[in-house]
Amino acid sequence: MTEAFDPRALAARLYSLRRAGRQEATSAFLSPANLRQAMEAQHFLAAADGISGNAWKVTVSPQGHAVSGPLHPYAEAVSGAEIPWYPGLKFETEIAVRLGKDLPIRAGKPYSRADVVEAISAVHLGAELLISAVRESGSVSFLLFAADRLGNSGYVLGPRLDDSLVDTAGGTPLKVTHAGRTIYDGPAQHPKGDVLTWLVDYANDGLRPQTSIKAGALITTGTLSGAIELAEPGEIDILFGDARLSFSVSKT
């Protein structure tokens, strides 16, 4: 008899592993069978983490399905941000956008990129920290990775940028140092070229929650530096064009 998938049980196990700073192989889990089950488990994990904020990441599955996950712990650099460090923690420089109006689910004409841009009220420099309780992250089972909040382990919101950066982020000079060593120095590059690709895809996902992509939501849009492993705790300093974001990752 096939074991029935239990989203609460998966969430509890992911939560326990995350709290202990441990990882297990994909094969050790009973993975969700579909995106609906994955998002149920993610919901229970977010509840266990006590996440009540309105900050999100968006991406697309290997099958082309848009998916989101909450950013936690969330901090703003102006308040002296500090994010927990664990072995295997990775870092990404990102652009985040704040929405000034709702983008409700549409039954007819899909949202264009221009529609999404028009809904943005502010653009920020940001940094995402990532580590999954799943050793292979999403390389074996994206659904399991989606349940694990898409690997998010923290987010730091930096200074506000010119709104035009959603169009011109690619190619902008980007330098990142960690614990005094340069870990990225080159032009900013988004995996899709356009930082808004995944947000537009998510806006046009008819299966997303009715409460998603509302005015006030902060949404981060994907890496500009690739995912870089942080071998030790230490200060991170990001220089993106003329904008700077500094914070620390520290042992708990």
Which features does this protein show?
single chain, 252 residues, alpha+beta, 8-stranded mixed β-sheet, 5-stranded mixed β-sheet, 34% strand, globular
Tell me about this structure:
The chain has 252 residues and is of the alpha+beta class. Helices cover 21% and strands 34% of the residues. It has helices at 7-20, 35-48, 113-119, 142-147, 165-168, 197-203, and strands at residues 55-60, 66-70, 74-76, 82-85, 90-99, 120-130, 152-161, 173-178, 181-187, 218-223, 228-229, 234-240, 243-251. Strands 1, 2, 3, 5, 6, 7, 10 and 11 form an 8-stranded mixed β-sheet that branches. Strands 4-13-12-8-9 form a 5-stranded mixed β-sheet, with no helix packed on it. Helix 1 (7-20) packs across helix 2. The longest helix has 14 residues, at 7-20. The radius of gyration is 18 Å and the shape is globular. The relative contact order is 0.22.
